[in-house]
């Protein structure tokens, strides 16, 4: 394995700037790493030619003195972002052969900042899942294994391919999307950093929609500083997304002063859940100690509606999904299964094109939106969403950030929990509440479980306070000194 | 709240998804389990609480009512499973 792939994005940026190596050399090393890790199934589409020609163009721009903030950095793109003329699947059979004729705003921003595309990463079908097992293109293997075991584990989901690719040193960073935890939970399972920005910080235009009031793109990287650099390249106002916020994108690195003295950190009592493994509690306590030692002040807080967040999410997200996924009808793109009439063609196409989890969610969504149930389910859930958002508002009058575990367990085996949808949904118990409130969150690797698997800590922030989150996350990162490598490359 | 097989068939029809007869039974059980689980929301009193419409307080932006895109019928049709004469083609809908 080449040394260039073991650099952080920050180190690679600085090395390119100093002329220690070219974008071509850096990209070549990553193209080879992608090939070497094919057994993980992290990529649905590899784009090595595009990567190398992009690297040459980047070297040329640098020679002319036009280097962007991500100049020459090879990245992987979750296959939920539309990429012009490059197959975009959303992990679904129903988008067979779809080659978008436009580029998503987030990926376009990254290319404008100088980044280079290595390929499109695997994901749960339409980002619906917490294991990456619902992908039509097959599950992704976590680069990590339990000590002394060869059982393949899931990388988490839905951004499982992105998390695995970054953990296995195939890419310096990857885009993810987070609707209820799809960046943070796989980041925790794979021992990397993943940030979901505030709703509205990154444009949703050109990203395949799952639940539009929740979906948000964010960076997945190996260090907090890498995430700060990458988010700056992704974010920004976009007139094509009416929910994209028109406030300037700050230089997040500038906020990373390392000084958290006097900062107030909320510890929500409702996140202590019966049945949570002792090592999850232990890593949380350790995080509290690290921040105390750095001079931050811990404050016990209450977020009283926490227990209602997951069931609320599993009404709102499917309701929006059933509406968003109505567009896959066999007429405009992707798969068509013939039928005698137009309705039969729709039913045959959607029956064959969607996988089991996607069908379940569309049906739940159609049910809770149907006449007679709309008020009892959908409006009820929207009211409770208001209460959950108010919990956080009240808490942020007393604290600056909130510290919790990211997920209730370490990575589990491929195939586990597949026969019990509700058990699978519980993976997102710590990530969903902030999603419903539209708040930013970041997961950082904090330690290893007794079985040698990464465990994550989550920090939640106030709207558009990504810089504060980066600052606190970096302090935790320095204290954790997480330098373990996954088995596939160690 | 338990759903029965007829309800599943009715929602599947609404959602235009063909569910083979042999899968309807299992799906009925799964949907019932999920709906029973979300039922816990009913214990919460939400009288007088406004349903959330937007997580970020903002008003919908407006723009000039002018053409900003277009003249790209070829691109629009590029991914169509079937197209004819510059249109999407579907099975016959009128006799």
Question: In a few lines, what is going on in this structure?
Answer:
The complex is a heterodimer of chains A (about 500) and B (about 100). With about 500 residues, chain A is of the alpha/beta class.
Labels describing this entry:
heterodimer, A: 490 residues, alpha/beta, Amidase signature (AS) enzymes, 11-stranded mixed β-sheet, 16 helices, 11 strands, globular, B: mainly alpha, 2 strands, Amidase_dom (chain A), protein biosynthesis (chain A), ligase (chain A)
Map the helices and strands.
The complex is a heterodimer of chains A (490) and B (95).
Chain A: H1 9-18, H2 23-36, E1 43-46, H3 48-63, E2 74-78, H4 105-112, E3 116-121, H5 160-167, E4 173-178, H6 184-190, E5 193-196, E6 216-221, H7 224-234, H8 252-255, E7 264-268, H9 278-293, E8 297-301, H10 309-324, H11 342-353, H12 356-368, H13 374-395, E9 401-405, H14 421-425, H15 432-437, E10 441-448, E11 454-460, H16 466-480
Parallel strand pairs in A: 2-3, 2-4, 7-8, 7-9
Antiparallel strand pairs in A: 1-3, 4-6, 5-6, 5-10, 9-11, 10-11
Chain B: H1 5-14, H2 21-38, H3 73-77, E1 83-84, E2 87-88
Antiparallel strand pairs in B: 1-2
Tally the structural domains of chain A: 2
**Low-pLDDT runs of chain A:** none
Mean pLDDT of chain A: 97
Task: Compute the separation of the termini of chain B in Å.
Answer: 43 Å
Strand content of chain A: 5-15%
Characterization of this structure:
The complex is a heterodimer of chains A (490) and B (95). Chain A is of the alpha/beta class. Chain A has helices at 9-18, 23-36, 48-63, 105-112, 160-167, 184-190, 224-234, 252-255, 278-293, 309-324, 342-353, 356-368, 374-395, 421-425, 432-437, 466-480; strands at residues 43-46, 74-78, 116-121, 173-178, 193-196, 216-221, 264-268, 297-301, 401-405, 441-448, 454-460. Chain A has 2 domains: 3-262 and 400-480, Amidase signature (AS) enzymes (Alpha-Beta Complex); 307-383, no CATH class. Chain A has 16 helices and 11 strands. Chain A has an 11-stranded mixed β-sheet with strand order 1-3-2-4-6-5-10-11-9-7-8, with helices on both faces. In chain A, a hairpin with a 5-residue loop joins β10 and β11 (454-460). The longest helix of chain A is centred in the C-terminal third of the chain and has 22 residues, at 374-395. The termini of chain A are close together. The model of chain A has no long low-confidence stretch (mean pLDDT 97). By secondary structure, chain B is mainly alpha-helical. Chain B has helices at 5-14, 21-38, 73-77, and strands spanning 83-84, 87-88. The longest helix of chain B has 18 residues, at 21-38. The radius of gyration of chain B is 23 Å and the shape is flat. The interface between A and B is large, with 71 and 51 residues. Chain A: Its EC number is 6.3.5.7. Chain A: Heterotrimer of A, B and C subunits. Chain A: It catalyses: L-glutamyl-tRNA(Gln) + L-glutamine + ATP + H2O = L-glutaminyl-tRNA(Gln) + L-glutamate + ADP + phosphate + H(+). Chain A: The active site is at 78 (charge relay system), 158 (charge relay system), 182 (acyl-ester intermediate).
């Amino acid at each position: 394995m080449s040394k260039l792939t073991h650099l952080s994005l920050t180190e690679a940026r600085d090395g390119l700037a100093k002329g220690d190596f070219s974008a071509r050399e850096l990209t070549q090393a990553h193209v080879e790493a992608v090939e070497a890790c094919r057994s993980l199934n992290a990529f649905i589409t590899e784009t090595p030619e595009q990567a190398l020609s992009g690297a040459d163009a980047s070297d040329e721009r640098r020679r002319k003195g036009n280097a962007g903030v991500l100049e020459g950095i090879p990245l992987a793109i979750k296959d939920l972002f539309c990429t012009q003329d490059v197959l975009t699947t959303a992990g679904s059979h129903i988008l067979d052969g779809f080659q978008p004729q436009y580029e998503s705003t987030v990926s376009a921003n990254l290319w404008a900042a100088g980044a280079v595309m290595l390929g499109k990463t695997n994901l749960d079908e339409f980002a619906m899942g917490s294991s990456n097992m619902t992908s039509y293109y097959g599950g992704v293997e976590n680069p990590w294994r339990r000590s002394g075991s060869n059982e393949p584990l899931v990388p988490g989901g839905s951004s499982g391919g992105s998390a695995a690719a970054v953990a296995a040193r195939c890419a310096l960073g990857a885009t993810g999307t987070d609707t209820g935890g799809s960046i943070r939970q796989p980041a925790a399972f794979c021992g990397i950093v993943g940030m979901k920005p505030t709703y509205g910080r990154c444009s949703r235009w050109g990203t395949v929609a799952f639940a539009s009031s929740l979906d948000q793109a964010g960076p997945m990287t190996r260090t907090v500083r890498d995430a700060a650099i990458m988010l700056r390249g992704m974010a920004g106002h976009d007139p094509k997304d009416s929910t994209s916020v028109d406030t300037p994108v700050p230089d997040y690195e500038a906020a990373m002063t390392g000084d958290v003295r006097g900062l107030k950190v909320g510890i929500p009592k409702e996140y202590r859940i019966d049945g949570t493994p002792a090592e999850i509690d232990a890593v949380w306590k350790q995080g509290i100690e690290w921040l105390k030692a750095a001079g931050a002040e811990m404050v016990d807080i209450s977020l009283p509606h926490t227990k209602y967040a997951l069931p609320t999410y599993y009404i709102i997200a499917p309701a929006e999904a059933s509406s968003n996924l109505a567009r896959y009808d066999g007429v405009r793109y992707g798969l068509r299964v013939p039928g005698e009439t137009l309705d039969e063609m729709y039913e045959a196409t959607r029956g064959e094109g969607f996988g089991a989890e996607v069908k379940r969610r569309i049906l739940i969504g159609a049910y809770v939106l149907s006449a007679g149930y709309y008020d009892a389910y959908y409006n009820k859930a929207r009211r409770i969403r208001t209460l959950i958002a108010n919990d956080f508002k009240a808490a942020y009058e007393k604290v600056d950030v909130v510290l919790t575990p990211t997920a209730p367990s370490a990575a589990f085996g491929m195939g586990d929990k597949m026969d019990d949808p509700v058990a699978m949904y519980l993976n997102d118990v710590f990530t969903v509440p902030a999603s419903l409130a539209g708040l930013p969150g970041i997961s950082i690797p904090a330690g290893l479980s007794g079985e040698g698997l990464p465990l994550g800590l989550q920090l939640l922030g106030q709207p558009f306070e990504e810089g504060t989150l980066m600052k606190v996350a970096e302090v935790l990162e320095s204290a954790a000194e997480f330098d373990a490598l996954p088995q596939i490359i160690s | 709240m338990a759903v029965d097989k007829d309800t599943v068939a009715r929602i599947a029809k609404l959602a235009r998804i063909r569910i083979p007869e042999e899968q309807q039974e299992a799906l009925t059980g799964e949907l019932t389990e999920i709906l029973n689980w979300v039922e816990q929301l009913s214990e919460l009193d939400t009288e007088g609480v406004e349903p959330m419409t937007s997580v970020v307080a903002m008003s919908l932006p407006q723009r000039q009512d002018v053409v900003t895109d277009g003249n790209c019928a070829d691109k629009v049709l590029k991914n169509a499973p079937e197209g004819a004469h510059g249109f999407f083609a579907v099975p016959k809908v009128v006799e």
